[in-house]
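User: Quick sanity check before I run a bigger batch. Here is a single chain. Can you write out its predicted 3D structure?
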Amino acid sequence: MNSTRIGNEGNWWTVSGPVIDVSRGAQRPCKISSDSAELVFSPEHSALLVIDMQNYFCAPQLSRSESSLNLVPAIRTAIADARRLQMHIGWVNWGNRMDLANLPPSLVYSFQRNSAWGGIGGELPGGMGPALIRESWSASLISGLDPEPHDWQVDKYRLSGFHGTVLDQILRNHAVTTLFFAGVNVDQCVWGTMLDASYMGYDTILLRDCAATSSPNYAEQATYYNALRIGGFITTSTQFHTAELSPP
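Assistant: Done. Predicted structure follows.
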């Protein structure tokens, strides 16, 4: 089967019929199925980013949708497989300043408009502390998701995990080219981070069963549609589980 090389001598994909190889000649690639292609990637140059799986968005104490909590088993499975494949793990979460000094009015207003507690920095009921302030209860990960000491933890201050953060610096310092995405909300912060990643030249792969939203269904469907339109891929934790490193 003829193959086509897309890109340049330092940064390329190889397309061979239904197989798209984004490993860039890595010595030990893996193959998984996606919605649009058989995908070959390099775990050594890949990271799984888990976005906003925080109490503020997921905890039943705040009457959050069960769809967020229901992600935990699939995300745990994906994390375990990423570790098995020796991929990087990044936790990208809201971690705002209490004085909100770096937030624009539009962002502050959007949270106030959609919150019963005054938005970011507002006092949560039952003594649960301020909303989405760094090191507060609401900014902490939901129970059942446990980072390891060598994982990357990145505070973010916009829907995208890249804007004004060190995420891009960390990824480039570790030669990461391929990003897998999980978390909430898939049409907002997950999508914002994924879109910026695509703009910055990263390969983007969304784990469908590891992402959810409280938005209407049409917003979620638009995200899946656009994820493919930007040259990204969609797969599941089940498909990811089948990945095996090539022999050395």
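The radius of gyration is 18 Å.

User: Great, the batch can go ahead then.
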